[in-house]
Amino acid sequence: MGPESILATGLMAAAFSAIHLLAGTLSVLHRVPRNRWLSFAGGIAVAYIFLHVLPELSAHQTTFAELLGLDPVAAESLVYGIALLGLAVFYGVERMAKTSRERSRMRGEGDRLENGPLWIHVASFSVINLLIGYLLLHREETGAWSLGLYFVAMALHFLTSDFGMRQDHPQAYDRTGRWIIAAAVFGGWLLGVFVELHEVAIGLVFAFVAGGVVLNVLKEELPEERKSRFLPFFGGTALYAVLVIAERTIA
């Protein structure tokens, strides 16, 4: 990788970190019903899943078949199984957080996470941020357009996930959690600068991240209490779809 690529992706990693550190200052995002910009961001993240994540999983399926000597059906089961594992792991973390908040309310301690589930929640997001930072430099699709679309989708995904994390445990998140999560995404980029995993390992990492992103996007947009806005959500999906089609047409 050239110095220009390292510089560009380093700036993107720094921007990802800044989103976590500064998103809490954007008071306009913390309205209920849900702010239209958060629904717009969620729409882009959903479009990213269908137009980039799923096709890229298919590309990794081919890599698994070639490098591991698997037949196409086994390779397909492996890559989508890892994505399903990522979704299941993050679903389990979210259920644990919800149960913890319910226990706190029953004890009259307010709508807060207990210490153990709180730090498991932060650790889980740190892991996915580390992997997203790493994939800035090591993705199946290459090129400036692809990198730019990845950056936009992940930046907006971070914005919506940060909003959800801050609602779950505002004081602990602002005091400590956001710093850990911000450091994780930049640390993932640093890891990518110095360490290049085998193609199979990168495929496994991407599939696991894909499952986590799918779960996090859906949990932020679908629950009734979020009161998502349809038109901004649809606008985000349509805009991102147009950009992806333009990228592939020009290429």
TrEMBL record:
Keyword annotations for this protein, in alphabetical order, are: Membrane, Transmembrane, Transmembrane helix
- Transmembrane parts of this sequence: 6-30, 37-57, 77-97, 118-137, 143-164, 176-194, 200-218, 230-250
Does the record carry Transmembrane helix as a key word?
A: yes
Protein name according to UniProt: Zinc transporter ZupT
Q: What is the lineage of its organism?
A: Bacteria, Pseudomonadati, Pseudomonadota, Alphaproteobacteria, Sphingomonadales
